[in-house]
Design a protein that fits this description.
Blueprint: H1 2-38, H2 42-45, H3 48-85, H4 101-108, H5 116-159, E1 163-168, E2 182-188, H6 197-211, E3 217-224, E4 229-235, E5 243-248, H7 255-269, H8 273-286, H9 299-318, H10 326-341, E6 349-350, E7 380-382, E8 385-389, H11 397-413
Parallel strand pairs: 2-5, 6-7
Antiparallel strand pairs: 1-2, 3-4, 4-5, 7-8
Helix pairs in contact: 1-3, 5-6, 5-8, 5-10, 8-9, 9-10, 10-11
Length: about 425
């Protein structure tokens, strides 16, 4: 009850601040017109009809000011009533009263706030709040993604009615963030078969030609590497200036669409997966390691990394833990494991399929098991194709590890 009242009071304070801001803006405009009249600015009041227009606006903003003041007064009264209902702490019982500096610091840095339960509880609340924030922030962008897919398929149909675009990746399993690209896969809609390399090249060229003439597309280019090639472009401002990556179904990306269903099954199995992924994506974004092009993680690779950790550690790390701290504890342990202890040159990340019998330690210790073709800094086995290293482009894992370490250190000291 006390928490609800505090939250309501906080919301009212925010509303009050917004109204104050709006009122300040209106008053500035009001003062501008007052000065214009007083100084008889020839540009504004030279003609009588201009004076009349200024007076109308002056009166209008005076009415605005009065209505805002009434609204602020009403909110202040409501806030004070709520504050009266919240029990006030006895200030005289404060443990810091009449203490010297030595005693003060001993209490501050040795009290309950240093306990893991307190740290994990704060982390869990912040992670869940951030998840809710992201879900709200992404609603309009998801609608735009659907609209972009419709517009893209219209262009694709000009080439052939046999193909269609399907959204995969973060936008398909609802773990997209504002900086996520919209991933669209071009497939044969009649049988969903793999498109041959020759056909792939032809479709990509035809698409590039058609898309270059479309008004809602900017910055169109073809990205090529030894592993893959894809089209990328940015939508116009009325479609949110969103980055869109277009791939054509081939032997190299056959698991991309299946991965959507797989991740949705992981989310059903681990309800703490989305808030963990949202937070980790933000850490990577701040380090500019959120895309494979920069040597960072692709979304699928990050999800598999988290799921592998959950399959390996969830039961042992949370046994006997209060439900109110499990998410915070797992996030804290994940950052510590991959920020400090994990040796990416020695271990292979293996993620089991949902409902599969899981060994106690899914992180394999031998890289020469031929689980994946080739050797890389970081190796994450694709559970849908054990010959595919999902982290083949993630060549900046040392920097990613440093990012996790910094986040881990921040989590340690956050209680102070």
């Amino acid at each position: 009850m006390d928490l609800d009242l505090s939250d309501r009071t906080y919301d009212l304070e925010l509303q009050k601040n917004v109204l104050n801001s709006k009122m300040t803006e209106k008053i500035e405009v009001l003062k501008k017109y007052e000065r214009a009249i007083k100084e008889k600015d020839k540009k504004i009041v030279e003609k009588s009809n201009q004076v009349e227009e200024v007076n109308k606006k002056l009166k209008l903003y005076q009415n605005y000011e009065a209505s805002y003041l009434k609204e602020i007064e009403k909110l202040t009264i409501e806030k004070n009533k709520l504050l009266e209902k919240i029990p006030q702490k006895n200030v005289s019982s404060s443990p810091f009263k009449d203490l010297n500096r030595k005693e003060y610091f001993e209490i501050k840095f040795n009290n309950y706030k240093s306990e893991e339960k307190h740290i994990f509880g704060i982390l869990q609340k912040d992670l869940l709040d951030y998840q809710n924030y992201m879900n709200i922030a992404m609603k309009p962008r998801k609608l735009l993604a659907e609209k972009i897919l419709i517009e893209f398929n219209r262009v694709l149909n000009l080439i052939s009615m046999n193909y269609e675009g399907k959204i995969y990746g973060s936008y398909a399993h609802n773990m997209a963030v504002p900086w996520s690209s919209i991933n669209i896969m071009v497939v044969n809609k009649n049988d969903l078969l793999v498109i041959s390399n020759e056909e792939n090249i032809i479709i990509q060229k035809q698409l590039a030609d058609k898309l270059s003439t479309v008004g809602w597309i900017t910055k169109l280019q073809i990205i090529e590497s030894n592993i893959f090639s894809f089209l990328t472009f940015v939508t116009s401002s009325d479609l949110g200036e969103m980055v869109v990556d277009i791939s054509i179904k081939s032997e190299l990306n056959t698991s991309s669409l299946k991965a959507v269903q797989l991740i949705n099954e992981y989310i059903k199995e681990y309800d703490i997966l989305p808030p963990l992924v949202f937070a980790l994506k933000t850490i990577l974004k701040n380090a500019n390691l959120h895309t494979p092009i920069n040597g960072g993680f692709c979304s699928y690779g990050l999800v598999l990394l988290v799921v592998s950790f959950l399959q390996s550690k969830l039961e042992s790390e949370t046994k006997g833990s209060d439900k109110s701290v499990i998410l915070g504890k797992i996030f804290y342990k994940f950052l510590g494991h991959f920020g400090i202890y994990f040796d990416y040159q020695k271990y292979v990340i293996v993620t089991h399929l949902p409902r599969q019998n899981i060994s106690k330690e899914p992180l394999q210790t031998e890289k020469d098991l031929n689980l994946i073709q080739g050797q890389h800094e970081l190796m994450i086995v694709d559970p849908l194709n054990n010959q595919n290293n999902v982290a083949a482009l993630t060549h900046q894992f040392m920097n990613i590890k440093m990012g996790f370490l910094i986040a881990f250190m921040v989590a340690i000291f956050m209680q102070y």
